[in-house]
Amino acid sequence: MTEALERHAENWDLRHVDFNDNDFLYDVYAVMRDNGAFARTEEPFLSPDPDGAWVAVRYAECVQILQDWEHFSSNPTPEGAERLTGDLVITLDPPRQQKFRKVLNPYFSPARMKALRPEIAAETDRLIDDFIESGAGDLAEVAWRQPGIVFFKYLLGMPVEDVPLCVELTDTALNGTTEQDRMAAWGGLYQHLHDAVTARLDQPPRDDMIDVLLAAEIDGEKLAFADVVSNAMLLVQAGLETTASAMSFAYHYLATHPAERDRLIEDPELLPRAVEEFIRFAGSIHGIPRTVAKDVEVSGCPFRPGEQVIVNYASANRDERQFPDADRCVLDRRDNRHLGFGAGVHRCLGSNLARLEFQLGLERVLARMPDFTLAPDRTAKFHGNSVTRGFRSVPVVFTASDRSR
Ligand code: HEM
């Protein structure tokens, strides 16, 4: 084992520049899992803490923690009087968190998703049209634009023109180089959404998520305006960069594995399983924190109130104890109970939407440019030392074809 592997395994810092090499990061995870069920980080991302944090790296313990919200709270200050984050679904615990989900859930129902299928296919086709006649293009453009267009136009109710700015602000907020850059971007995103929601107050209601949040009553009370804005911001943050990064990885994988690309073209029925496997194999979220609310022991390790535990979904998803041949991307993998969308009460609210966007993103590209491969004269760009991880550029060449009608 190299010294660098050992050093990173002892103090995992997801923002470290070495992790621009994605395979190296997964090698570090393998060492962390071999060392034990819990590793350490002195640099907890998302929720900085001078005391550092534990990192759950094996599948079984990650599932146990995700299902035990009474000991492992999503609220960063479960015992404290001070509420740092307001009423935000992802940092609440049941029962209030479940009531929030009930408000938002209908927007992600299977029936609603099914009805969106033609719209998502058409939006993806329009993005492919931008370069289909030239025989060369950048698939990262499709991956980064499609989820935002779909979400803003058909669910959230924000102008599509705002997508590029919101993607940029979310990206800097999560992945910016300094804490100062990240905080400034959070502020910018909050202000933008604050203005957008304020503008809606004078308009007639529409059937979208902003209106649902504005009208929602939980425990007989309407949400505070700041909480409407914060939850809208969470949805933007949770729904755009995650799906885009995961999809960009799949495009790169298929552009560099032509036999696998051809297999999906010959057997499109495989697509749903392939999407699950891409999310297991290269999921874009590597960890979300929990805070210990009461003394508890997991696999012989004691945890004390106030300690932070980051659940590392990506490492759990490569755990050989759960997934045979875990380091291989097996597009027709069965029994794929991956943690890419989390588990337990906070399981991803948008997973049905993400799956559909992802599937149609692949389906339309495979149908319209079936021989796409990585452009020989250009390099793909992977952004790795960051909280969400994916390709920023996937330049491809293919046989030129006609625009969609
Ligand atoms: C491939 C894409 C996606 C991935 C990998 C992903 C992953 C996750 C994960 C791991 C969690 C659990 C967080 C936790 O345990 O605390 C989560 C929660 C959540 N996701 Fe996603 N997500 C994706 C797409 C989306 C989309 C498209 C939306 C909405 C537009 C969305 C909205 C949410 C929300 C609101 C939560 C919080 C739910 C709660 O706290 O009850 N996600 N997501």
What this model shows, in words?
With 405 residues, this protein is α+β, with helices and mostly antiparallel strands. It has a single domain, classed as Cytochrome p450 (Orthogonal Bundle), CATH 1.10.630. Helix content is 48%, strand content 11%. The chain is built from 15 helices and 14 strands. The chain has a five-stranded mixed sheet with strand order 1-2-10-7-3. The protein has a three-stranded antiparallel sheet with strand order 4-14-11. Helix 5 crosses helix 6 and helix 11 (241-256) crosses helix 13. The structure holds protoporphyrin IX containing FE. Protoporphyrin IX containing FE is lined by residues 74, 89-90, 97, 101, 151, 234-235, 238-239, 242-243, 246, 279, 283-285, 288, 313, 340-342, 346, 348-350, 353-354.
Keywords:
405 residues; alpha+beta; Cytochrome p450; 5-stranded mixed beta sheet; globular; binds protoporphyrin IX containing FE
